[in-house]
Amino acid sequence: MAPARETTERRISYCRLCASSCGVLLDIEGGRVQRVLGDARHPISGGYSCPKGRRAGDLAHGPDRLTTSFRRTRTGQHTPVPAVVAVREIADRLGALVARHGPDSVALFMGTQQNFAALTPMLARAWFRGTGSHKLFSTMTVDQSAKWVVAERMGTYLGGRQRFEDADVWLLAGTNPIVSGNGGDGDGAVVQNPSVTVRAARARGLRLIVVDPRRTETAALADLHLAPRPGTDAVLFAGLLRLVLTERRHDADFCARYVADLPALAAAVAPVTPAVVHRICGVPEDDLSAAARVFAGGQRGMATTGTGVCMGPHSNLAEHLVAALNVVCGRYLREGERADDRAVLTRHIPARAEVAPPTRNSVQGFRSRTGVRAIRGELPSGVLADEILAPGPDRVRALIVSGGNPAAALPGRAKTLRALRSLDLLVCIDPRLSDTARLADYVIAPTTMYERADHTAIMEPFFPRPFAQYTPPVLEPPPGVIDDWRFFFDLAAASGRPVKFAGRILDPRRPPTADELLAMLAERGRVPFGELTGAPHGVLAGPSGALVGPPEPGAAGHRLRTMPDDVRAELRDALTESVPAPGFPLRLIVRRIREAINSTGTRVPGLVPGATNPAALHPTDLAALGLGDGASVTVRSAAGRVRTTVRADATVSPGTVTMTHCFGSLDPEEELGVNVNALTGTAGAQAINAMPTMTAIPVSVEPAPRPNPEAG
Ligand SMILES: Nc1nc2c(c(=O)[nH]1)N[C@H]1C(S)=C(S)[C@@H](COP(=O)(O)OP(=O)(O)OC[C@H]3O[C@@H](n4cnc5c(=O)[nH]c(N)nc54)[C@H](O)[C@@H]3O)O[C@H]1N2
Ligand SMILES: Nc1nc2c(c(=O)[nH]1)N[C@H]1C(S)=C(S)[C@@H](COP(=O)(O)OP(=O)(O)OC[C@H]3O[C@@H](n4cnc5c(=O)[nH]c(N)nc54)[C@H](O)[C@@H]3O)O[C@H]1N2
Ligand code: SF4
Ligand SMILES: [Mo]
Question: Whose CB has fewer CB within 10 Å in the chain, the N or C terminal residue?
């Protein structure tokens, strides 16, 4: 007799591996995902999905998926432990550490995969607040915290930013949204269905400028591509500002109303002529002039950046000058214009045509033992290793890692590993045995995205239009796992601490359901939770009718500071320094791939081509080094070295090397490329946010006998 055919069930959900939040259809058979398709009826992503999103079945059911939590024994082995027992033991150990060393001995690290779930960051922060510790870390401070520094030093215009959807020009610097879906920062630019979105914008007349040393997938779609030497964006943007101001292409009315110090800005950029830009950045003078003309000649549209600008040397300065370009061109919404109304599940914050002046809050923020201050309530992750390692009564002794993999992701790999190994207690919540989990005393196995209920409250700034979506769990989780948020709720309860959530205090004896929490979170939105749960493909909320309001009377005199003294000093340094890097003739730059988001996806069989992250160089550089495609090499920097193989890639500028981060494994049996953070360190970190340099790193590439996994 033929076996009965399993019935295939088609479920509707959305992917939560990156900010794109693509609508998907899942074919589920016998409790397993057989196929993931882009949801063509999804109003925002329109059927798009990417290679890693389509392999979600492997992420949920692959052999490396953890289906139970683990405790590390004295001999260093991980043995299974029920999550409830682990939570109780962790609460006891944290309690003992706090009693002995105080609350600042406990730290929380919030990683990338905590941020696409609505409830996890809320409950993690709620637990953390209850500890009384100041030692909060996230990936933002090894990513784009230059944007926070700009707000501190320049101030913020509160009327809102111009949008991609009705822009006639856009400049993307150091970002490759066709691959990363990064693009803007909260202006709805090119996050979803990026290739279609960019092509449609160009078809309606948008002119696209890309600033990137590599001819990226995004640069290939641009009207103008400037390829500066890595790490020279600050000078390039100073040069653009000079051209816009000297040719009087700026928005004089906006500047008169909202800028305190336009003459100071003009004076600071005056020496940065096209000839200077050509000398330092290698960008032809005519290309720079064309970019200034096209950008300032447009009526609407912004310059936005990604990691290529925010991880370089002078990252805070470069980001400041990009923001200054937007300001002098007046690329913000004015009083009476349609306001940004993408808050659908969250509370709408009225927009006003006024400036929040520079705060310099980080000057008053908690001062850590390493001398660095908190910014937006977080200590910079660049100092996490020192917070753990440097002796003293207030050092970090316990670290909870939520949805992150600092062992692989933080700069200065060897020191980071030493720090993580020296903790009294390391807890890692992760569905896989990441490098960080390998070192942990407790590994908590969580549900993965399709096994939990969720909605898009915290993803709203990434959508181009007011939109919201809810998903129920569409897969049955393995019996031994718990929702991420539930771990933090239970940990707070086991420590006897109340949990504050959405303006109320939750009863620790009566754990809420995920749906109850999601409903509370959406209480102040404009789409009722019931309507949301009844719309499986999501709700396009439509315009709210909100307009940009007039300034509050007390704010009429507030102005943006475009050239404070410390920014001027940084610009002087960027213009006068010679970049001394004897022995390191090449520059290593960041590069993301479609098949993985940081370490997520790197282990899915057959997904990443070659299951590795080779060093890519221009064919002329390879020829000059006498290397063929696939040759074994040693890549060396001032901080360390790795053995890897090379790949010829004509999109990489001569003089430049690309490698993708978050590869490599602490398991000597596992072949998974090499970890780029063996080549990075925290030397030369930026003032204020201690941002390390993670792109434009001076390196050399030399032939090596044969590949060999990195040491340690
Ligand atoms: N050299 C170099 N270093 C870099 C970068 C670079 O460009 N170059 N980029 C930096 C940037 S921008 C960032 S954001 C950081 C990334 O740093 P991290 O966020 O620390 O790194 P990820 O690999 O994204 O970590 C995500 C972890 O979450 C796990 N995970 C997946 N799904 C879930 C889930 O549902 N729940 C939980 N609890 N865990 C889950 C994954 O298995 C993975 O181990 O790296 C930084 N480091
Ligand atoms: N597929 C995929 N998507 C992702 C991620 C992923 O790992 N994979 N990671 C997610 C995360 S955590 C983040 S933070 C975002 C990041 O998103 P993006 O910032 O868009 O990241 P990348 O795609 O690495 O693009 C950075 C670009 O900067 C360029 N670049 C390097 N150095 C310089 C420089 O000195 N100057 C200039 N102007 N450009 C430079 C590189 O060539 C590269 O094209 O992407 C998110 N989305
Ligand atoms: S990982 Fe891919 S499928 Fe998932 S949301 Fe991001 S772009 Fe969409
Ligand atoms: Mo990131």
Answer: N
